[in-house]
Amino acid sequence: MSAIIDPDIRKARTLPSAFYTDEGKFEQILEGFANNWHFAAHKSQLSGRSAVELGHLERMIGESIVLAGGDEIRCMSNVCTHRGMLLVDGSCSNNTLQCPYHGRTFGLDGRMKSMPEFDQVEDFPTTQDDLRIFPSLFWKGLVFTGIKPSGMEACLEEMEGRIGWMPIETFDHDLSRNRCYDIRANWALYVDNYLEGFHIPFVHNDLNRALDYDNYRTEIFDGGVLQIGIASEGEPTFEIPEESPDFGLNVAAYYYWIFPGLMLNFYPWGLSVNLVVPLSVDRTRVEYHGFVWDKKFLGKGAGGDLDKVEAEDQYVVESTQRGVSSGSYERGRYSPTKETGVHHFHRMLTS
Ligand code: FES
Ligand SMILES: [Fe+2]
């Protein structure tokens, strides 16, 4: 059987519209997310708190998970082992987690510590009464987790070689930059749109002024895509050290996307983590979390007005959802110079 997406972009046709509209396909793709690493949090999200609920993961992989900061940082189940109540609603600052239903307590390591009215229960407690701990991966203050995750190595290697010089672990969570957008479109359409700079001159007039469109770059790697926005004259740029492969370039933004829905957007002011969370076949939630590195660049350049760029993107993505749902559209073709990132994503989605 030939591949759904031809590996040769010049011959390839784009993703069949059923991928954006068919509920069965949607569910099948989501089931596969159990095998991926997912962004959990930046460790600064814990500051002053002992546990934080990671709501986006419940929708991505069907598990309510908390990030717990005990003797070490863990991703653990938020589900009480008694009758299944959720332990943490939002966040908590205590050193033990107490279930609000019947009072069972757990340590920040997930071990069950106490339970009222259970003295007569035989063979209790056992490890079955402890909270489930999920695998975790740490990179420069970023925490990743998953159910049976694999395959993040190439992404971390790529980021280490490229932006490993940034002190990402010292970036500070800025709650005022949190955003949550609900969009009437399939999650993959939102990702498609993110993975090309082709639309920038048509859709984003201010961003287009901040970026040098002719020098916009896209690189693909195993598990993800990197886009590099080069600054227009006079716009803020990174001070890139000599050991970086990009030394000498006027980089305004590094846009990393990691399958399926993680966007790590690095600007001179810091990092915007954008999480694409599928809600249903034609509904998607996008969460923004901002981590500040250098305040003086806030509000400037390519990462200056993210709300405006987001609104412009949502308009085209929602309109495209209506288009691909029509009987007149089945699939299209790719630009070999501008849509290599979209092609790479579609190949991953259909392999
Ligand atoms: S469900 Fe948690 S103590 Fe009962
Ligand atoms: Fe855009």
What does the model show?
This protein is an alpha+beta fold and 351 residues long. The chain folds into two domains: 18-36 and 154-161 and 174-350, Naphthalene 1,2-dioxygenase Alpha Subunit, Chain A, domain 1, CATH 3.90.380; 38-138, Rieske [2Fe-2S] iron-sulphur domain (Rieske Iron-sulfur Protein, 3-layer Sandwich). It is built from nine helices and 18 strands. The strands form four sheets. The chain has a seven-stranded antiparallel sheet with strand order 12-18-17-16-15-14-13, with helices on both faces. The mean pLDDT is 96. It binds FE2/S2 (inorganic) cluster and fe (ii) ion. FE2/S2 (inorganic) cluster is lined by residues 80, 82-85, 99, 101-104.
Question: What's the helix and strand layout?
Answer:
Elements: H1 18-21, H2 23-32, E1 38-42, E2 51-53, H3 55-61, E3 65-69, E4 73-77, E5 91-92, E6 96-98, E7 105-107, E8 112-114, E9 133-134, E10 136-139, E11 142-145, H4 153-163, E12 172-183, H5 187-194, H6 200-203, H7 205-210, E13 217-221, E14 224-230, E15 251-258, E16 262-267, E17 270-280, E18 283-292, H8 306-324, H9 340-350
Antiparallel strand pairs: 1-11, 2-3, 2-5, 3-4, 4-9, 6-7, 7-8, 10-11, 12-18, 13-14, 14-15, 15-16, 16-17, 17-18
The structure holds FE2/S2 (inorganic) cluster and fe (ii) ion (FE2).
Fe (ii) ion binds at residues 193, 199, 203-204, 313.
